[in-house]
């Protein structure tokens, strides 16, 4: 859980809106992602069929989760891995810390895992006095900056290349040769290489947990997951239970959707299957492999209105196409996961009272659901949170009173006619020139834009005045 | 066309059109009559309920929904000059009343015969407006609810192609939300402003004289932003143009 949850969403989003460098960074990354995804899908004729199949695979697994969890545990255990079960984020961190201590670990390497962020593993390792080395390039940047990811695919997308150069110049010894991307990548490789080889434990996430083989699967474009999981003595996987798929072919069906939706590529550079620790005769690999399966609110979602969210394969397309995310970036959301999928998940993870703005800070334009590769009805789920918020009485008294007054009128057409007639006349007095530049009770509107004044009496007044047919009167 | 084959349609005016721009309602009546419909305007209508629906107040929404259903179920069709309100009646009402043995099926039946006006004119009435001439250029913004909840994309373009002299210009990001979002624009005004600011940029870059769309909420948002910036782009609901109102006052212009 991010510490920023404690401060207000409005303060965070205002700060983001006032930061032109952030906007430049967001536009660069999401703009490229949008274009590349569109190009990738243009060449993927069977996309809609693949999307239906992907959704069906996830739905099937969620409906039979107990079956596949047991199958996965059986097969992973047979491969020599040890499976651990964590109901909550703190349980998950406790297990990982205990395993690190049992291994006598002083230094652990970690490849990017949003589940790890969700359970607060980076902070937990720090508190336990274990040196943590983030090996994903963007996570390396985040670690140097002391920040949390702002995007689930590009954690450091809020930082421009120029800002990254500053961080590297301050931290890397020797510093990068220049500020070109290639030099900076080379510098990070140099810094990380020694750590890869000297780590005691490597911690990774999993993009898929494959039930019929007991293997975990990671996909990366940097190869850092392979170097994180292979040289250390112990490999620990942390993964949410919704990552299960029945078999490798199902994982491949979802991978085709994941990569195209996330980066616009056809395949990731590295797709690696981890099946148990090093066996006799293997050239390399960890002596021990542990898999920590994390629930953290997921099994509760199976039984409530947020079940469809368990289909999510964490591609980030919803945030790349979200008008709100593209203005405020990821940190303003205040949770582990930003954007539309984050606005659904953060109230699950952090509580609705803590994150009530998120489901409301959405125009309900539906583009997120349109680009979702597993057909998650994100606006419907956000609306479900709005309903819960209303029923829990979390709205302010002004909002409740205003809506109650509106609802009282909306249910009494005669009274509504009278009230709207009066309101329109008042607005017309203010808007004699056509436009209204300032309205005391609608400052949210007129601070930024003019309000076109009413053009005359209400439609109903004018319609009635012209002696039109009124069916009710005839009955 | 004989009386018997003329559909009897109920016009759902929408609260915004009722209060702010009745011309859109009269344009709707003109077009529907020209397309061979008998148009009536039930006076028992107020609003589709979106202020409550989008605030999570399902009980108030359901009360308004029942009122709309009762007022409009006698008609062959319910026609709305808004994709957003049409989407709420078509998708929101049946979902909201699904577990109600009486109102659930009635909501579903009304949903089936509810249409946004441009899609109704093209898809159901196969209508092409005749004798229209308007000199100038226009660009079209796809309002989100119409586009994604109802699949309205080609219909307005086909109707506008019948206007002689009107040059249609492409709008970069035509399918990107304008930042209105109902209550969103007043609850999160700064975010909404940033979104509509980008929309205004693309509208101005299109070089068009006019901005057209199918939802008054979105239009008021975009027109209000364009005017605040001193832009000369004139904004109309598409059906105002189709009903011959393109030379009249645009949104915000003094009547």
UniProtKB/TrEMBL annotation, chain A:
- UniProt keyword Zinc-finger present: no
Record's superkingdom? Answer: Bacteria
State the InterPro entries in the record: 4Fe4S_Fe-S-bd (IPR017896), FTHF_cligase-like_sf (IPR024185), Helical_ferredxn (IPR009051), LUD_dom (IPR003741), LutB/LldF (IPR004452), NagB/RpiA_transferase-like (IPR037171)
What Gene3D superfamilies has UniProt attached to this entry? Alpha-helical ferredoxin, NagB/RpiA/CoA transferase-like
* Record's keyword terms, sorted: 4Fe-4S, Electron transport, Iron, Iron-sulfur, Metal-binding, Repeat, Transport
The primary gene name is lutB
Domain LUD: start-end pairs: 69-294
Keyword flag Repeat: yes
MF terms in GO: 4 iron, 4 sulfur cluster binding
Q: Which organism is it from?
A: Jannaschia rubra
Region: Disordered; residue ranges are 455-475
Protein known as: Lactate utilization protein B
Any Pfam family: Fer4_8
Please, one GO biological process term? lactate metabolic process
Domain 4Fe-4S ferredoxin-type, first and last residues per copy: 309-376
TrEMBL record, chain B:
All copies of domain Cysteine-rich, residue ranges:
9-90, 139-222
- InterPro entries registered for this protein in UniProt: Cys_rich_dom
Give the range the annotation lists for the signal sequence. none
Q: Which domain of life is it from?
A: Bacteria
Which Pfam families does this chain map to?
A: CCG
Any one GO CC term of this protein is:
cytosol
One GO term in the molecular function aspect is: oxidoreductase activity
Name under which the protein is recorded: Lactate utilization protein A
- What lineage is on file? Bacteria, Pseudomonadati, Pseudomonadota, Alphaproteobacteria, Rhodobacterales
């Amino acid at each position: 859980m991010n510490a920023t949850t404690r401060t207000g969403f409005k303060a965070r989003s205002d700060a983001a809106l006032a930061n032109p460098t952030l906007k430049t960074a967001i536009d660069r990354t999401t703009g490229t992602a949008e274009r590349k995804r569109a190009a990738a899908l243009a060449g993927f004729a069977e996309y809609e069929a693949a999307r239906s199949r992907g959704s069906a695979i996830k739905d099937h697994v969620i409906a039979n989760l107990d079956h596949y969890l047991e199958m996965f545990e059986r097969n992973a255990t047979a491969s020599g891995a040890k499976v651990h079960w964590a109901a909550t984020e703190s349980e998950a961190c406790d297990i990982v810390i205990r395993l690190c201590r049992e291994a006598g670990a002083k230094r652990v390497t970690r490849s990017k895992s949003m589940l790890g962020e969700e359970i607060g593993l980076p902070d937990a390792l720090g508190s336990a006095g274990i040196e943590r080395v983030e090996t994903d390039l963007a996570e390396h940047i985040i670690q140097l900056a002391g920040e949390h990811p702002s995007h689930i695919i590009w954690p450091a997308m809020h930082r421009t290349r120029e800002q990254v150069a500053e961080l590297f110049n301050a931290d890397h010894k020797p510093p990068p040769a220049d500020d070109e991307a290639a030099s900076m990548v080379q510098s990070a490789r140099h810094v990380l290489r020694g750590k890869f080889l000297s780590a005691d434990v490597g911690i990774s996430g999993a993009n898929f947990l494959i039930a019929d083989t007991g293997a975990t699967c990671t996909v990366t474009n940097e190869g850092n997951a392979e170097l994180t999981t292979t040289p250390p003595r112990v490999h620990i996987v942390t993964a949410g239970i919704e990552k299960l798929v029945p078999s490798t072919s199902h994982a491949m069906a979802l991978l085709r959707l994941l990569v195209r939706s996330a980066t616009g590529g056809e395949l990731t550079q590295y797709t690696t299957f981890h099946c148990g620790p090093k066996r006799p005769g293997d050239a390399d690999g960890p002596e021990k492999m542990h898999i920590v399966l994390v629930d953290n609110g997921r099994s509760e979602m199976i039984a409530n209105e947020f079940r469809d969210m368990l289909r999510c394969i964490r591609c980030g397309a919803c945030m790349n196409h979200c008008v709100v995310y593209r203005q405020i970036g990821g940190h303003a959301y205040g949770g582990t996961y930003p954007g539309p999928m984050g606005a659904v998940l953060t109230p699950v993870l952090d509580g609705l009272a803590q994150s009530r703005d998120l489901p409301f800070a959405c125009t309900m334009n539906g583009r997120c659901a349109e680009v979702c590769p597993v057909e998650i009805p994100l606006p419907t789920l956000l609306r479900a949170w709005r309903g819960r918020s209303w029923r829990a009485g979390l709205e302010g008294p002004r909002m409740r009173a205003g809506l109650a007054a509106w609802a009282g009128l909306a249910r009494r057409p005669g009274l509504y006619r009278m009230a709207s007639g009066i309101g329109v006349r008042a607005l017309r007095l203010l808007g004699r020139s056509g436009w209204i530049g300032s309205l005391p009770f609608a400052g949210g509107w007129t601070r930024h834009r003019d309000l076109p004044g009413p053009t005359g009496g209400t439609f109903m007044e004018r319609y009635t005045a012209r002696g039109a047919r009124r069916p009710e009167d005839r009955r | 066309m004989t009386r018997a084959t003329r559909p009897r349609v109920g016009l759902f005016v929408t609260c915004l059109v009722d209060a702010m721009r009745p011309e859109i309602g009269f344009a709707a009546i003109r077009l529907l009559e020209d397309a061979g419909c008998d148009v009536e305007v039930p006076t028992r209508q107020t609003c589709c309920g979106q202020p409550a629906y989008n605030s999570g107040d399902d009980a108030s929404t359901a009360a308004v929904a029942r009122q709309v259903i009762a007022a409009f179920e006698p008609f062959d069709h319910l026609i709305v000059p808004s994709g957003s309100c049409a989407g709420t009646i078509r998708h929101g009402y049946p979902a909201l009343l699904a577990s109600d043995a009486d109102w659930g099926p009635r909501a579903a039946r009304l949903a089936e015969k509810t249409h946004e006006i441009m899609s109704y004119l093209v898809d159901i009435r196969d209508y092409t407006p005749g004798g229209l001439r308007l000199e100038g250029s226009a660009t079209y913004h796809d309002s989100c609810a119409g586009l994604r909840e109802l699949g309205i994309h080609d219909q307005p373009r086909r109707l506008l192609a019948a206007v002689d002299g009107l040059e249609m210009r492409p709008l970069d990001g035509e399918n990107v939300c304008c930042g209105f979002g109902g209550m969103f624009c007043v609850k999160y005004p700064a975010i909404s402003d940033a979104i509509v600011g980008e929309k205004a940029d693309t509208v101005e870059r299109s070089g068009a004289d006019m901005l057209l769309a199918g939802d008054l909420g979105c239009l008021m948002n975009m027109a209000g932003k364009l005017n605040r910036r001193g832009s000369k782009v004139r904004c109309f609901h598409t059906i105002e143009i189709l009903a011959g109102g393109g030379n009249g006052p645009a949104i915000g212009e003094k009547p």
